[in-house]
Specification:
The chain is an alpha/beta fold. Helices cover 39% and strands 22% of the residues. The strands form seven sheets. It has a five-stranded parallel beta sheet, sandwiched between helices.
Length: 644
């Protein structure tokens, strides 16, 4: 696609000036910004940034939730030929130091006081950070830091700049080329410093357009933008595809109102990682436990029918007349109200990505009439590599390569990608770039997998994480962890076993789901640590672990990866404690080192182990959580060899 983001903005403003571009909920009321209003705002912000000294190829960090004026700021920077870098709004201040210094950032636009405070804290480590503008002025009235101002001030300066330089904005937009750098996204940094992934207008828009054509997206779609803009998944759905298609992006009032806002907007195009779909289902199941006996009986009866009939119906397969009639009754009584409760009643296309989704979870959503599909991609590939066609959504694959994509496998099973959407480079890191991009243009994903007979890609694990037990059995930790996380009572899991005689695991319970389960059984508890240590909770988790082991026993290749022993951690794994990335991926190596005493206890045959852990609270204070953790055995099963 031979265009740029600002040109697409101006095109929409010219062709559909009064059509809604963005909506934002403010004090409970949805406010609409049309394409014409947005284009005017971008002109003013671009003028203000130019007057402040932002030039072509400069970097500008943007930190905050999805907000119309932050989106407009990114467009304004791109109009000037500068490069916006969205950073995770929930990151601690220290996590901003490396990206800001690595990219020589002098300018920042942030959402509110929280982000301002973080950046002011870093001024000594980042002396080049000269100007900080904020969108929300609440709490900032008495701040008098040099270089700190509201976006309203920047907009006023932009208007003055436009009057003094009337043709400036259109001239700079015309100068931009599709091959210019459009954005930089920092990876989550699971094994070291994050890397700045550099993308051009062409790479992002080419993949945005390919995904849109695959799913026949139009300007009539409604999208809810509620995930971090720093995650390329959210960025491609609510920014690149938004400008490519011209649909409406809706910004929730806050993280606390997302569920309500989801129901009010009723998106037609929806994207979420598996943990969000898990959370939605967990809330439904908790509510069902509180329902009357009749409602529970109706729910379970029609859900059994949905599991049997629903997926075939979604895939366009023939369904008997009687089953069609029963499903229609179920749709009236259960499935329709359930879709409405979830806020997904208008969804035409829903995607999940980032981690594997459990077959049961995947089947649940498709069985009640939600067109949930999986996709495969990464920051480096501008997301869209493989997608599932509407009538070919399988729980165990991530779809087929879409337009422009080539996939091949190395002898070791690593997946290689060639696509117009590949990164230009890792910023200031030619060595890392050379490691993933070879001379023939293939991107080395680091994922292990294979193509099935129908041409669908199946992911096993990260290639570097796939190991062997001491007896030579295959060990795929993420595969095992994801199977555990399919249970609503398990939130996180970390499996160990490479070059060891057996597999052991750490478990994090889902506090809400297990808390509700405990209350139904009149089981008292005084917080997460207390609940996690209850013998009854251990029995509940052991049941889940043994179901996973039974599943693994049916897979001849992975049967050796059954979990022999486990413990339930005394605290939830947390990104603030360095145990998860900002995209909630487990930092397995770091966890293994941090909790080495627990790993040794699991493999040393101990039945309990005392542990004391430092934690960081949301308000920045530090504390200590201590507990004596029980270590228990789980039943394993002989391999069920497939018949020849």
């Amino acid at each position: 696609m031979q265009t740029t983001f600002p040109r697409l903005l101006l095109e929409h403003a010219r062709q559909r000036p009064d059509a809604p571009a963005l909506r934002e909920k403010v004090y409970g009321i949805w406010q609409t910004l049309t394409w014409a209003q947005l284009a005017q705002l971008v002109r003013e912000l671009a003028g203000g940034l130019a007057a402040a000294g932002l030039k072509r190829d400069d970097h500008l960090v943007v930190i905050g939730d999805n907000r119309p004026r932050l989106y407009a700021t990114m467009l304004a920077a791109q109009a000037l030929g500068a490069v916006p870098i969205p950073l995770y709004q929930d990151a601690a201040a220290a996590e901003f130091t490396f990206p800001i210094n690595n990219a020589d950032v002098r300018f920042a636009v942030v959402e509110d006081q929280e982000q301002v405070d973080k950046l002011l804290e870093l001024r000594e480590q980042c002396p080049q950070l000269a100007a900080i503008w904020y969108d929300d002025p609440r709490g900032l009235r008495n701040y008098s830091e040099p270089g700190l101002a509201g976006l309203d001030v920047l907009i006023e300066q932009g208007r003055a700049h436009a009057q003094a330089n009337p043709g400036f904005f259109d001239a700079v937009v015309a100068q931009a080329a599709p091959t210019d750098v459009a954005a930089m996204f920092f990876t989550s940094g699971t094994t070291g410093h994050p890397k700045g992934v550099v993308h051009t207008h062409f790479t992002l828009l080419d993949r945005a357009r390919a995904g849109a054509e695959f799913d026949k997206l139009t300007e009539r779609e409604e999208v809810l933008a509620y995930l971090p803009p720093a995650w390329i998944g959210q960025n491609i759905f609510s920014y690149a595809q938004w400008l490519a298609c011209g649909y409406v992006v809706n910004c929730p009032e806050s993280a606390a109102t997302v569920t309500i806002d989801l129901k009010e907007i009723g998106p037609t195009y929806y994207f979420a990682p598996p943990r969000v779909f898990e959370g939605l289902l967990t809330s439904v199941m908790i509510r069902m436990e509180d329902a009357s006996r009749l409602k529970r009986a109706l729910f379970h009866h029609y859900m059994a029918l949905a599991r049997r009939v629903g997926p075939a119906r979604m895939d366009g397969a023939p369904v008997g007349t009687l089953d069609r009639l029963r499903y229609a009754i179920g749709n009236l009584l259960i499935y329709g109200p359930l879709r409405n409760t979830l806020g997904l009643s208008r969804v035409r296309v829903a995607y999940t990505a980032g981690e594997a989704i459990g077959p049961d979870l995947f089947t649940f959503y498709r069985s009640i009439g939600i067109n949930l599909k999986q996709l495969y991609g990464s920051t480096e590939t501008a997301v869209f590599v493989c997608l599932q066609p509407d009538n070919e959504a399988k729980a165990d694959t991530v779809g087929v390569p879409i337009a422009g994509v080539e996939v091949k496998l190395t002898d070791s099973g690593e997946i290689l990608i060639r696509s117009p959407g590949l990164l230009k480079e890792y910023y200031k890191n030619p060595q890392a770039t050379a490691e993933v991009l070879d001379s023939a243009g293939w991107y080395h994903t680091g994922d292990a997998g294979f193509l099935d007979a129908g041409g669908h890609l199946k992911i096993i694990d990260r290639a570097k994480d796939v190991g062997r037990l001491a007896d030579g059995s295959l060990f795929a930790p993420k595969y095992v962890e994801n199977k555990l996380k399919f249970f609503p009572h398990i939130k996180e899991a970390v499996a160990f076993g490479d070059r060891r005689d057996r597999v052991c695991a750490f478990i994090n319970i889902d506090f809400e789901a297990v808390g509700n389960w405990a209350e139904k059984r009149n089981l008292p508890y005084a917080g997460y640590t207390d609940l996690a240590g209850k013998p009854e909770v251990y029995d509940l988790v052991r049941e889940c672990v043994q179901k996973v082991n039974a599943d693994l026993a049916a897979d001849e290749k992975l049967a050796g990866g059954q979990i022999s022993r486990f413990l339930i951690l005394h605290k939830e794994l947390d990104a603030d404690d360095g145990e998860l990335t900002r995209t909630r991926k487990v930092r397995r190596g770091h966890i293994g080192e941090k909790y080495q005493v627990l790993v040794d206890a699991l493999y040393g045959g101990r039945t309990e182990q005392f542990i004391e852990t430092q934690v960081r609270f949301e308000d920045g204070r530090s504390g200590v959580v201590a507990a004596t953790l029980k270590i228990v055995d789980a039943a394993t099963f002989p391999t069920l060899r497939k018949a020849a």
